[in-house]
TrEMBL record, chain A:
Subcellular location per the Swiss-Prot or TrEMBL entry: Cell membrane
Organism superkingdom: Bacteria
InterPro entries: ABC_transp_permease (IPR001851), BCAA_transport_permease (IPR052157)
Species the sequence originates in: Prauserella shujinwangii
Protein name (database record): Amino acid/amide ABC transporter membrane protein 1 (HAAT family)
Biological processes, Gene Ontology terms: amino acid transport
Molecular function GO labels: transmembrane transporter activity
UniProt KW keywords: Amino-acid transport, Cell membrane, Membrane, Transmembrane, Transmembrane helix, Transport
GO cellular component: plasma membrane
Automatic annotation (TrEMBL), chain B:
UniProt topology in membrane: Multi-pass membrane protein
Molecular function terms from GO: branched-chain amino acid transmembrane transporter activity
Protein name, as recorded: Branched-chain amino acid transport system permease protein
PANTHER family: HIGH-AFFINITY BRANCHED-CHAIN AMINO ACID TRANSPORT PROTEIN BRAE, HIGH-AFFINITY BRANCHED-CHAIN AMINO ACID TRANSPORT SYSTEM PERMEASE
Gene Ontology, cellular component aspect: plasma membrane
Organism listed in the record: Prauserella shujinwangii
From TrEMBL, chain C:
Signal peptide range in chain numbering: 1-25
Name of this chain's protein: ABC-type branched-subunit amino acid transport system substrate-binding protein
Family of the protein in this entry: Belongs to the leucine-binding protein family.
Extent of Acidic residues compositional bias: 419-428
Pfam families referenced in this protein's UniProt entry, alphabetically: Peripla_BP_6
PROSITE patterns: PROKAR_LIPOPROTEIN
CDD domains tied to this protein: PBP1_ABC_ligand_binding-like
Lineage of source species: Bacteria, Bacillati, Actinomycetota, Actinomycetes, Pseudonocardiales
UniProt entry keywords in alphabetical sequence: Signal
PANTHER family cross-referenced by the UniProt entry: BLR6548 PROTEIN
Entry-linked SUPFAM superfamilies: Periplasmic binding protein-like I
Disordered as annotated region, ranges: 407-445
Organism: Prauserella shujinwangii
Keyword Signal recorded: yes
């Protein structure tokens, strides 16, 4: 029983992290119809920026803010410089560009910051809450992780549903020509989409790093599961990304706890295929209706 | 006048596609023999490495370039081929060509399963599913470690050149048939055979249908193409190639281990296909060459420039990443696309100089 | 060189015209059998230099930590070179990146052997990676010394005559830990936390030889999967009050963090590979700030040692390593146990090269190690098991408790061998480093 509770709670916190990462992917997908494979590397990079600040004696929250801001800037710059020329071109070219960025960012980080383990502090406690005589695998920091993800998701939903900017972003992604005719500055919207997504990605990077070890490749594992979570939920839906992330986090935690850690990757494959066979566009996507 | 020469040459060439491809492959074989005999054992081993990347990459070209399906999971299919080869060679009862064919067959079978699941998926959903395949399949090898050797992998006894062949080669070329050269021959002969088959296939009815499906699904379906079956078929052909590539990999590396089939392998194959020039078999060869020859060259350059070994090692992925980005920005059609464009521009200018006012159609195939 | 090329070209012409001119100028006579076979013409060695190589993960997921090992080895080789080299030869050390991927290992080792033409391989890292090149190195007659892995694969002198292990293998370490637990924690319910590969498997085998009946749970983690919450929760649920970890250092830190989350406080025992107190302590230090006063989270954990580490600053060996590092590697970062590991391997290689005499051949190097390898003394507390019948590395460890940044001995140095060999106490006094820091081994034979 105690083990079940702990495996569940552990899965939830892990799932929240996948969800944050998946949210960033969904944002970029909605803005530009591109899957950003460099997301993890970019987040790793801004996390290192935060680490440098913390090591220089600044507070955690200052570093936290700087990393989010850094993500915003990095996303905008990357979109302007290297994504813009391949937007609207063959989808594969954009994939290759983001793969190239993924590799290059990681190499730059290794050259700049060295490839050794560094510990990254957490703003909240890392020991579990006590319930009666038991300690459960849920820490103040886990609460912060889940809280942040929920806030970001609600923020995004609100942005796309209720704000003018959100509407323009959706329009730009949906049909550039029409959007342009309607007077939307499409280019600016695409840049904004990337900037926001990179900031959310940076948040995911910070949440994963908190109370953990970082090195230039520390996001590699999250990239795969975050992508799986986004696809599972449906790439068009922020809510789907969160549900997908939590689902994957929970399922993998159960598999790891009760069947064996070596089956985790297989389980991810099995879950994804099972879901996609029934719903080829993910759990929450309305893309299928839109296609017709 | 060079035009008349090429025209004459064209008249001499066999008129059938098969004949022309056969001739091309024979010419390729000659080049391979010359190059492998002229280069030392290290280059030989690099060519052996290039051959297995290329075999898998040309297979991926059929899937992604011709039929428009993305796959981030071809590394997993190579793993299937590599493990099949390793298990069969371990028994000692099977000669290696049989093991390779078996690897292709088993992987093709896996391709039926994967292809059937993938036929319903599109774009990023297909990418996600195949990505999960790439990380999931190596997990099988760890779970069933009794059969597949777990994390440590399966040692593969790679074939050694039979004495009669070594003697014959020595008699003709006075060069020893080293193990590296022998493996490079195996790899490249396999590659040429695959190229011959694929070149004919792409020129056939199937090739045309695949392209039609890629370019416009709805139109193809209206024209009576059974989309699902064609998609699965493309996956099977592509998987069989990946299996053969995996078989060569197992023999060249002498090991089939999960850590050899990471997501990096799958992504490398995709980059090779696109950077070389999507949809073209030659492009896939170029991309594979880049994968094999670029990193050591960059590392060597870094060491020459006075970097420490560790820094030089990190320079290789940096340059590779930058090359990917730059090629896509400068030459969206890949290296081969850029070459085509330059050639067209050149012929147009020559035509223009000779006959001002003539309109040269320079529309270039994607 | 030019002559060689010209001959090749002639050969090529012959090949193309083979149908008509079968009797080419160079084809006569039989093919020479076998490889170079040794003699003064071995690759990689000249009058004034000898070239050695290695493969390490310098990029990617496995790079943190391991990528520091070759920098240590390089610093020590530079130190030896600055002091006149070995028999008048400077040691040239080339290390290449394989990203812990056996496919890459096979490529870079091809490059090292065929292109760089190394004389010997020294310290290539990793079990799956090095497995991929075992056949290649042995069939090409390249000495394959001191593999950086405690797998049992490196001790197969019949099959792989050129390959030698170096560090204590995981089974030997597991046995010594198992015996210690049996004698000192006879009532403990033991949980095992194992990396899911040969490392965990060999360690488990050694431990089970003594405490099979005490083990209540064995949890395995797949390397690369950083979420080990479920595994630690399972150990806790099984009621294990003593956990033996055969894991790498990053997973030591992760297991401590996860246990903190669960308020799980068993007696931890980590294998030597995973314990590196300085590294893990530094990693965990930041998390314990303000919560645990001036002691690292690893305080009180038990581990094993086979040579003095970076924290034992009074030890003459550690002082030697510090001197070497300050002079030849300082700008690359701090001295660490990984770098000391690389230096100690380099030290053993210098001993082997000295033993091979003034005109070493590849075979001579291997023969010398088989002959006198068991007598070599260096930073390690225990001797190697090298002989004509054994290529196994160090024979034992001592059990210690981590205290602050240092450690205190819990058991004397103990030695044993694989299988059911007994564990015995090793009483020989540890050697002190030579005054100039360079060994002085007399040529063997």
């Amino acid at each position: 029983m105690q083990q079940f509770v702990n495996v569940t709670l552990g899965g939830l916190s892990q799932g929240a992290i996948y969800a944050a990462f998946a949210l960033a992917l969904v944002l970029i997908w909605r803005a530009t119809r591109i899957i950003n494979f460099a997301q993890g590397s970019m987040a790793m990079f801004t996390t290192y920026v935060a680490l440098v600040l913390i090591e220089a004696g600044h507070s955690y929250w200052l570093a936290f803010g700087a990393a989010l801001l850094g993500g915003l800037v990095l996303g905008a710059v990357v979109e302007r410089l290297v994504i813009r020329p391949v937007e609207g071109g063959p989808a594969l070219n954009a994939v290759i560009v983001t793969l190239g960025l993924f590799v290059a960012f990681q190499a730059i980080a290794a050259l700049l910051f060295g490839s050794s383990f560094e510990s990254f502090p957490a703003p909240f406690g890392l020991s579990g809450f006590r319930v009666g005589e038991f300690t459960v695998a849920f820490t103040p920091f886990s609460a912060f992780v889940i809280g942040s993800v929920v806030v970001v998701m609600l923020g995004l939903v609100a942005l796309f549903r209720f704000t003018d900017v959100g509407l323009r972003m959706r329009a730009s992604a949906f049909n550039q020509e029409v959007a342009r005719l309607l007077g939307v500055r499409v280019g600016g919207m695409l840049t904004l989409g990337w900037a926001l997504a990179a900031a959310v990605g940076s948040l995911a990077g910070l949440l994963i790093a908190g109370g953990n070890l970082v090195h230039p490749a520390y996001m590699d594992g999250v990239i795969v599961y975050g992508f799986v979570a986004a696809v599972l939920g449906g790439l068009d839906s922020p809510g789907g990304a969160v549900v997908g992330g939590l689902l994957i986090g929970l399922a993998l935690s159960y598999v790891s706890g009760y069947l064996g850690s070596e089956l985790v990757t297989l389980a991810a494959l099995a879950i994804l295929v099972a879901v996609l066979l029934v719903r080829p566009h993910g759990l929450f996507s309305r893309a299928a209706e839109r296609r017709v | 006048m060079p035009d008349s020469v090429t025209a004459a040459a064209r008249r001499l060439l066999p008129s059938s596609v098969l004949g022309r491809n056969l001739l091309g492959v024979l010419a390729g074989l000659l080049v391979v023999v010359v190059v492998l005999e002229l280069t030392g054992p290290f280059r030989n081993s690099q060519f052996a490495t290039m051959s297995y990347y290329a075999i898998a990459a040309v297979g991926l070209t059929v899937l992604t370039g011709l039929n428009g399906q993305i796959s981030l999971g071809h590394g997993a299919l190579m793993a299937v081929g590599a493990y099949t080869t390793g298990l069969l060679l371990e028994t000692g009862a099977v000669p290696f060509p049989v093991a390779m064919l078996a690897a292709a067959a088993v992987t093709a079978l896996a391709g039926v399963v994967v292809g059937a699941a993938a036929a319903r998926l599109h774009g990023p959903y297909l990418a996600g599913a195949t990505l999960a395949l790439a990380v999931g399949v190596p997990g099988l090898a760890i779970y069933f470690d009794g059969v597949f050797g777990g994390e440590q992998g399966l040692r593969v006894s790679s074939p050694r050149p039979p004495d009669w062949l070594a003697d014959a080669v020595y008699f003709v070329t006075a060069g020893d048939l080293t193990s590296a050269r022998y493996l490079a021959y195996i790899g490249w002969i396999t590659l040429l055979a695959v190229l011959l088959l694929l070149a004919n296939l792409t020129a056939s009815r199937y090739g045309r249908i695949w392209r039609a499906v890629r370019d416009d699904e709805v139109a193809a379906e209206l024209a009576g193409v059974r989309l699902g079956r064609m998609r699965v078929l493309a996956f099977v052909v592509s998987a069989a190639c990946a299996g053969l590539g995996g078989a060569v990999l197992a023999m060249v590396v002498r090991l089939a281990a999960p850590s050899g089939f990471t997501i990096v392998l799958s992504l490398s194959l995709l980059t090779a296909v696109v950077v070389g020039g999507l949809g073209s078999l030659t492009g896939a060869l170029l991309g594979s060459a880049l994968l094999v020859f670029l990193p050591p060259a960059v590392t060597g350059l870094g060491t020459d420039l006075g970097l420490t070994g560790t820094q030089a090692a990190e320079l290789a992925p940096l340059v590779y990443g930058v090359v990917l980005v730059v090629v896509m920005l400068v030459a969206p059609g890949g290296v081969l696309g850029a070459v085509h464009r330059l050639r067209h521009a050149w012929t147009r200018r020559r035509q223009g100089a000779r006959d001002v006012g003539a309109v040269g159609s320079s529309k270039q195939g994607g | 060189m030019t002559k060689w090329v010209r001959r090749r070209r002639t050969a090529l012409v012959a090949a193309v015209a083979a149908a008509t001119v079968l009797a080419s100028a160079c084809g006569a006579g039989g093919r020479s059998e076998g490889d170079s076979g040794g003699g003064a013409a071995d690759p990689g060695i000249t009058e004034d230099s000898v070239k050695v190589g290695a493969h390490f993960p310098l990029t990617g997921v496995a790079a943190p930590g391991y990528s520091a090992i070759p920098t240590g080895a390089k610093a020590y080789f530079d130190y030896v070179n600055a002091n006149g080299g070995v028999h008048g030869r400077t040691i040239e050390y080339v290390y290449r990146d394989d990203a812990y991927n056996p496919t890459n290992t096979s490529q870079v080792v091809n490059e090292l052997v065929l292109q760089d033409e190394i004389f010997a391989m020294v310290g290539g890292l990793g079990t799956p990676t090095h497995s991929a090149v075992l056949d290649f190195l042995n069939s090409n007659g390249v000495p394959d010394l001191f593999v950086s892995s405690g797998s049992l694969l490196w001790d197969q002198p019949e099959q792989n005559p050129m390959t030698f292990g170096w560090q204590p293998d995981y089974e030997v370490e597991g046995k010594i830990i198992g015996k210690y637990v049996k004698e000192n924690f006879p009532e403990a319910k033991v949980g095992l936390f194992l990396q899911d590969d040969d490392f965990g498997r060999d360690g488990e085998k050694g431990a089970r030889a003594y405490i099979d009946d005490q083990i209540v749970a064995a949890e395995r983690y797949a390397p690369g999967n950083t979420d080990i919450g479920p595994q630690i929760a399972a150990l806790q649920a099984a009621g294990a009050d003593l956990v033996i970890g055969f894991n790498v250092p990053s997973y030591t830190a992760l297991s401590q963090l996860t246990a903190l989350r669960l308020n799980y406080q068993p007696q931890w025992i980590y294998s030597n590979v995973g314990s590196d107190p300085a590294l893990v302590g530094a990693l965990l230090g930041r998390f314990s700030e303000g919560k645990v006063t001036d002691s690292s989270m690893l305080d009180g954990a038990i581990t094993t040692e086979y040579m003095p580490g970076v924290d034992e600053s009074d030890d003459p060996w550690t002082q030697l390593w510090r001197k070497v590092w300050d002079a030849h590697g300082g700008e690359e970062g701090e001295l660490s146990n990984y770098r000391i590991y690389g230096m100690a391997q380099a030290y053993t290689f210098v001993q082997a090269l000295q033993a091979a005499g003034p005109d070493p051949t590849r075979q001579g190097l291997v023969d010398a190690l088989e002959q006198v390898g068991g007598e070599l003394r260096g930073p390690a507390f225990v001797p190697f098991r090298y002989s004509a019948d054994s290529h196994a590395g160090m024979s034992g460890v001592k059990v210690v408790r981590i205290k602050g940044n240092g450690s205190e001995d819990l058991s004397p140095v103990q030695v044993t061998d694989n299988g059911d060999a007994e564990i015995t106490e090793y009483t020989e006094e540890q050697a002190t480093p030579p005054a100039n820091g360079i060994p002085d081994v007399q040529p063997a034979g």
